[in-house]
Amino acid sequence: MRLYIIIYIWNLIYFRGREPFPRTTLTADNQDVPLNAIRAFVAIARERSVSKAARALSTTQSSISRHLLVLEEYLGASLFERRGRMSDLSDYGRLFAGAVSEPLETICFTAHRMRRKNLADVNRLVLRTSLATFATHILVPHLDAFSRDMGGATVDVVTSLATPGASDRFDVLLTRDLSIVEPSDHWEIHQEQLVLVGAPAHLRGKANGQFRSLPILSITSRPDILPTWLRAMGLANRDIIAGARVEHHYLALPAVLSGKCLLVAPEILVGHYVRDGMLEVVDDSRTPSGMHYRAYALDRSANPELARAFCRWLARLCRTMPGGELR
To answer: Rounded CA gap, 270 and 142, in Å?
Structure first.
């Protein structure tokens, strides 16, 4: 019994402050992947220099070198070959760099884009659209309703005719003719119908076909509209009087409302003027343009659920507008 007590006391003294069992050496099978070391290696491969890689990562050369040693130990292979005073990627190093560089850049880019820098922007969206007249006459006047439905959400609206790039900052794209390749959900919100409209005072009492006595404006930002409508009507350019050229529909509408001219326009843009009796649709002038309005909610949005809610709301809004029903 006394011997057992002596052994017990000895163990307490000897193992005090020590681990009762030796640590198990981690191997490549159970060791965590050294992500920081991979990031350092990719920087070296890209910059072709340890010192330049250190500057790019805002760290020291010794830190970069340690990361490189850790990665080589983990992989069990040399990533660089010494050639005189210079070092170059080994065959294995080139293979590994090609495999990890692009995925690592994608991870860093995505994390940077999705970082919420300002918590006040959690209930805020940036809408990018190529449809300036649609935004002016349909979207912007109804944004208050969306804001009320979504607890005071703010929607910033920017217009651009350029194809969006990966570095452009927005949450929702509303477009008719632009394409987007990055991951997103999309909604078809409207199938465009074209109509010929004019002021009722200039159309009243005229028989069908007499509209050819009035000039038809051309919209330079939509050069497809007039030729599409003429083909559908079985007409040629010589069958109409060519009017002035105007850049956008929102600039042409005041001229049609007050002047002696006509306009071929998307029905959804002029529907409320027709409903209120300010414009009149020429009989049998309606035809599809073949264009579809779509809304895209980007996966990289900082507010993906709010972006999707906006697209669903916009689809409902279009269905309620005069001339806005999906056909």
So the answer is: 16
Distance in angstroms (rounded) separating the CA atoms of residues 163 and 177: 9
Nearest to 169 by CA among 214, 201, 128: 128
Q: Do domains 28-114 and 192-290 have the same CATH topology?
A: no
Q: Tell me: pLDDT of 55 over 80.
A: yes
64 closest CA partner among 83, 43, 81, 79: 43
Give backbone dihedrals phi and psi of 81, rounded to 5 degrees, phi first. Answer: -120, 135
pTM listed for this prediction: 0.60
Q: What phi and psi, each to the nearest 5 degrees, are found at residue 186?
A: -135, 155
Give the class (CATH, top level) of 119-187+296-320. alpha beta
Beta carbons within 10 angstroms of residue 231's beta carbon: 11
Q: Give domain 192-290's CATH superfamily.
A: Periplasmic binding protein-like II (3.40.190.10)
Instruction: Give pLDDT, residue 20.
Output: 37
Query: For residues 162-198, b (16+ Cβ closer than 10 Å) or e, as one string?
Result: eebeeeeebbbbbbbebeeeeebeebebbbbbbbbbb
Distances (CA, A) of 147 to 142, 296, 308: 9, 19, 14
% pLDDT > 90, the chain: 34
